[in-house]
C-alpha cells in the first residue's frame, strides 16, 4: 500500500529545471528509513551512503523529522536515493511539503544530489536530529499514524 503524503503541499524548487527522473536525492531524515521509503513510494529503491558538508540536519521544535540548514563546520551523513521516477519525485515533493526548498547540493567525495532544505528558522533547534533515536522511539508511531490517515 502506498501511503498518502502526510505533510501536504509541495516544496519549492529553486532551479528552473528541478529534479527529473533519474536524478539522485540526498536524504538526511525520515527517508533514510527503508520502511518510510517503501510506504511512500510503494517499492524499494536503491540507496548508498553519502554526506554533505556545510549543512546540518537540525532537530525542529514540535516535529519528529529534521530540517537541513546551513552550518559552515558541519557534515551531515545520510543516503543518496537512486533510480527515482518522475512520479516518485512528485510524491516526494508532496511529502516534503512547502516548508522545504529543493536544491542541488555537492556531495562529499564528489557528485551532486538534490536535497530538501528547511526554510523556517524559527523552529530550528540547536541540537541535531538523531536518526537512531527516531528509529528507536518514533518510527513505529510515525508509520502507524500514516496508515491511519
TrEMBL record:
InterPro entries in the cross-refs: AIG2-like, AIG2-like_dom, GGCT-like, GGCT-like_sf
Superkingdom of this protein's organism: Bacteria
UniProt domain Gamma-glutamylcyclotransferase AIG2-like: residue ranges: 25-121
Membrane-spanning residues: none
CDD domains xref list: GGCT_like (cd06661)
Gene3D superfamilies reported for this sequence: Gamma-glutamyl cyclotransferase-like
Keywords for this protein: Transferase
Name the record gives this protein: Putative gamma-glutamylcyclotransferase
Lineage: Bacteria, Bacillati, Actinomycetota, Actinomycetes, Streptosporangiales
Amino acid at each position: 500500500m502506498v501511503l498518502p503524503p502526510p505533510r501536504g503541499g509541495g516544496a519549492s524548487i529553486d532551479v528552473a529545471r528541478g529534479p527529473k527522473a533519474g536524478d539522485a536525492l540526498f536524504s538526511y531524515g525520515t527517508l533514510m528509513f527503508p520502511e518510510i521509503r517503501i510506504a511512500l513510494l510503494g517499492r524499494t529503491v536503491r540507496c548508498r551512503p553519502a554526506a554533505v558538508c556545510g549543512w546540518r540536519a537540525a532537530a525542529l521544535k514540535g516535529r519528529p523529522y529534521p530540517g537541513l540548514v546551513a552550518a559552515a563546520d558541519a557534515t551531515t551523513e545520510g543516503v543518496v536515493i537512486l533510480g527515482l521516477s518522475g512520479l516518485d519525485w512528485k510524491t516526494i515533493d508532496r511529502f516534503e511539503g512547502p516548508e522545504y526548498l529543493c536544491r542541488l547540493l555537492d556531495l562529499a567525495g564528489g557528485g551532486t544530489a538534490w536535497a530538501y532544505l528547511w526554510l523556517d528558522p524559527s523552529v530550528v533547534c540547536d541540537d541535531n536530529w538523531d536518526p537512531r533515536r527516531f528509529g528507536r522511539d518514533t518510527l513505529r508511531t510515525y508509520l502507524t499514524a500514516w496508515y491511519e490517515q
